[in-house]
Every structure is written in C-alpha cells, then in structure tokens.
Structure prediction request, 318 residues.
Amino acid sequence: MVQEIATVLASGQETGPHGEMALRVLPMVGTGGTRNISDVLSLAGADMAIVPVVLVERLRDAKTFGDIRRRLVYITLLHTQEFHLLVRPEIGSPADLAGKTVSLGEEGSAADVLGREVLDALGVKINAVNLGLNTALDGMKRGQISAALLLSGKPVKLLLDLNARLEGIRFLSIPYSQALQRDYLPSTLRYADYPNIIADSESVDTVALQSALFAYNWQARSERFELLESFTQSLFSRFSEFLGDAHHPKWREVNLAARLPGWQRFRPAERWLDRRATGEATADNGTGNQRNPTRVSPDREEKLFKEFLRWRERQQGK
Prediction:
C-alpha cells in the first residue's frame, strides 16, 4: 500500500528547476507492529506509519512509549487487515495447534503481538517462533512447523504465488468468538481472493482489524508539518486514482471521511474534508493560491465508488 502511494503521488507532478520531484514518499520496510510506531516517535526521517488501530491503542493504554495521545495524529482510516492462518494437513481446528510450533512472523510485528492475543482468546497455547513467511513455509513443508500466521490485507501477493495445493498447506478458520468481538471484526477468505489455495465452492472464516495511517504530530508550520500537509492534500485530492483495477482492491474499502474515536486527526486533513463537505474542490494554502487541484470531480469520484460497491456485491453473490 505504501509503495502504491509513493508511485501514484510521484506521477504527474511538477518538478523543480533541477528536475527534482515536488513531493517524494520514501517507503520504509517495517513489521507493521510496535516498531513502526517507535520509528515514527523517534526517527527524524519517519513521518507516518500504517498500523492496526487496536495495536496503537494497546500501546497508548499501556503507556509503552509514554503518553502518545498528543504525539500522534491520524490522517485517515484505511482498510481492514485479515489474519491468514496457514496450517499443515493434519491440523483440523485451532485446538489442534495446542503445544505445536507456530510462526507468528517477525518479533514485535502486529501478527506476533496480536496473534498471541487471538490464540489466547481461543484458549490455544502454542510454542511460538518468530520467522519470516518464506522460512516458516519451508519449515511447514518439512514438518517442523505446524502453522504460520500472517496479518495483512487480502489478497497477499506472496500467498497468491504460493502453490499450496501441491504441498497440502491450506487456510484454517479462526472462529469469531465472543472474546474477540470487542476489538476484532469478522471476515472471510474466498476463492476470489486466493484461487490457488481455496476451492471455488469453499470459504474460510477469519478475523480482521481496522488499520489507519498515523503520523507524528509535528509543530504547526514547521518544515515537517508543511511536508505532511502537502502529502495529505495530494493523497486526498488524488484518491480516486487508487480505486482502479491496477491498484490493490483494499483501497476500495477506504472512506477518507471516516473518524477514529479517541484520536486527533491531522488538522490539514480535517480542513480538507471540511472543504470537501461544503463543495470546495481545491485546497487553499492560506494566501489565496490554489495547489494540488482535484483531478476527478467529487461527483465523479462518488459515482465510481458506488459502481465499485455494486460490483463487489455481485462478486460476493449478494
């Protein structure tokens, strides 16, 4: 998702006098977990992170990094991320994983922290190890590991390339138990998501989490604040470009206007949405000049989104 943001926002922009890009987004490899938040809070070059909301709220309530309520803001809610539980053929239910070796991804990742929480809620005590997905899959093929847990928005490209049927590896359902209903959402993995793993007539129930784009709360009118403001205006005004077939389908879940209770939204993002709500199509930089013109009208963007919703309902057989 970050790579797609970088690619789209770098295209079609005016360049400086020496050919430099007016706005460049630099993706950084992260785990999607606590380290992502730590980087935003401590690294001078890290402005934003995509993180599950539940995880950030766990860090806030535990004060792992002190009081982060004023140090972090959110730009927008994003897509849901699904738990993908891959298992060997002999595993028929989550209870069968008791005492077995299960990879929860990299240490400190969202899958590691929240995967333990999900399995504990189901009453399953495992022997957890922290391995990358490829290494975990190799261990599963050799019988050294019984399962691997991945947290990401479906479909995951790496899993689409997995010839799982030949190896007997499949997805295992994660029941939406009462213990998970406060913080987690029900979701389903379907044949349309993973035709190489799930049969046409089958589906796999799982749980999911809402993610959001969080940012460091830079001092207003500082250089980093203005860069973040420029990014936000570009992302919001060009959002319709992410809804096409060339981009990840998870973009079509995003509602820029959706609010995240308990957190402050980045002020330029709030102002952009307020202007959008009153029919303004361009962002004003405070001097009467316009920048980052909207490339698609709000009416056209709304029409495209409604067309997508109708298409998704047909795909799901509703």
Observations:
- Strands lie at 48-52, 72-87, 101-103, 127-129, 147-152, 170-171, 185-190, 203-216, 283-284, 290-291.
- Residues 281-297 have pLDDT under 50 and may be disordered.
- Residues 298-315 form the longest helix (18 residues).
- DSSP finds ten helices and ten strands in the chain.
